[in-house]
Design goal:
Mean pLDDT: 77
Oligomer: single chain
Low-confidence stretches: 87-114
Number of helices: 4
Distance between the termini: 57 Å
Number of strands: 2
Structural class: mainly alpha
Strand order of the largest sheet: 1-2
Helix content: 40-55%
Radius of gyration: 16 Å
Largest sheet: 2 strands, antiparallel
Strand content: 5-15%
């Protein structure tokens, strides 16, 4: 019989994600903490956003923390190639509510290439 250790990130009684290592689970939990703090900060702005939009923006900024730090330092971020969705990723998204929201995936910008 095999013993498998899983680390589950739980927020407000809801399982968000399961990881194989504590390090990955802690990193994801920290990213969610950052997203919560960003949500509270953005909410104070005089901008008319729906709750879902506010959550999506906060999650996007938190999940791109390193790029945001560079931007705040005045460095122009490098464009990354758009992620390719595979059949397995789509299957994971259906079975995992944390992955099911495609709005958390960066969409490529259209327009002039420099």
């Amino acid at each position: 019989m095999a013993v498998i250790v899983k680390y589950i990130v739980v927020r407000n009684g809801v399982e968000k994600m399961t990881f194989a290592t504590k390090k990955e689970a802690d990193a994801y939990d920290k990213m969610l903490d950052i997203a919560d703090n960003l949500y509270d900060f953005i909410e104070t702005a005089d901008i008319d956003l729906e709750e879902k939009q506010l959550e999506d923006i906060a999650f996007f900024l938190a999940s791109n923390k390193e790029k945001m730090i560079s931007i705040f330092k005045g460095v122009k971020p490098k464009a990354s190639p758009p992620a390719k969705n595979t059949v397995e990723e789509k299957k994971d998204a259906r079975s995992n509510p944390a992955l099911a929201n495609p709005s958390h995936v960066a969409k490529p910008k259209s327009g002039n290439k420099k």
